[in-house]
Hints:
Number of helices: 2
Helix content: under 10%
Distance between the termini: 71 Å
Shape: elongated
Amino acid sequence: MKSNYTSLFYLLLMVVGFATLSSLTSNAAVTGTKFYIHYNASNCNYEAHMIVTAGSAAAGANAGAVQFTIVVPHGTTVTKVADNEPHITSGSLGPQVWNFPQSRVNAPAISPGNDYISATLSLSPAAAYPALAVNTDLILFKFTANTTTCGNGIRMWNNNSEDGNADPLGSPDPFSFQSGMQGGDFNNSFTVSSPNETYTGRALLGTTTWPSPVFVTKSKVVTPPFNGPGGTIVGSVTYTAGACATPLALTYSWTGPNSFSSSSSSWIRPNVTANYGTYNVVVTNSNGCTATTDLSVPLAIKIISFHGNANKCVAQLNWQIAPGERDLQYFEVQYSSDGSRFVGVGQLERNDYNDTYTYNYTQPSGKGYYRLKIIDLQGKATYSETVPVSTTCDNGDIIIAPNPTSSLSTVSGIEAGDQVKVTDVLGNVIANYISGGTNATVDLGIYPAGIYSVIVSRNGDVLKAAKLTKQ
């Protein structure tokens, strides 16, 4: 903390340093600097940084008066870990000492929730910086902060206008004359090789937040109620700390369906039918850091069997559910040409009188993949396994050309009365023709680029199903 007399002392001492070490000054013309604080999770330290924003200076630029002020929640223990820059110019080549804390004001009346801590650079013996240029980023010193707020509230001081350098990033912190501030100047400042002030504000860089706990395992075991109410849910979460998040005094806060709560890392809950849904947990460690995760417990609809067969161009799907599945609302049949991107092609409502379901889908020649999206009475979805079906329905006498097309394609080799149907990737029918001769024209001009299916039928029998690409 700089008083008016202290500031004058620093200026005189700096001038003396320049007079005795003028040989070390090399074209120093740094005209702009900013400060920021960064939390380094690899070594669990905070770092006080200076970054050059304007001008440059060759290696050996004399260290001038510097003040770096941080703000912490009241009661936080702050300890310097290491000095970094600048380095002493004679004798030992180690870093110069930072007086940290130089001054500290705890919970002033104007701001009782904060403590203000300033650090200043010792100017004897003389020290110098490495080469400085725009974007040069130096760590000045490192410190730790023992906080129970996970690093929240640890930040740089926001300069007020007392030194003529108002910080443009946020409201200023208290002025020296305000209640409890003890008349001192806590403003950040920086000079190098000249008495001219170069500090221009805080850099929008870095973070001051502690790392949160890291989950390595979350698990659930669900015994579903296949025949009415019952079943059991077993939920648990395993926690491990990051390098800087000490896993002491962990607390767990679970919430879930039907006003469920628990303060244990694991729990058992009966009756899946009544209590399925999403369970959330918040874990808090001794540093005030929290992590959250959830366990989703669906009410599984028991699929006893699901398989598919091909009948020429048609994929015939059959499945059976367990007797007594009362929570089922409907099935959505989904199709994929590659086994990864599925689209819904049909829907079957729950059958209260039969546990067996059948669905037919006309598929272009080749291999297709099918799965069931199972929707319960609450609108929640689960999925079946995927089954492949390979169809062969390429009547060589029927030709679709050109393919790809930009607009028109001709279906040839057909007879009068044949049906030519065109569907999009979702199975929606976008065109349906009845041939008047041996050819039919498919017009995709108004439709977007993509993959379409052309299905040719005669008297209800599919003769050909093929993909048509619109460019």
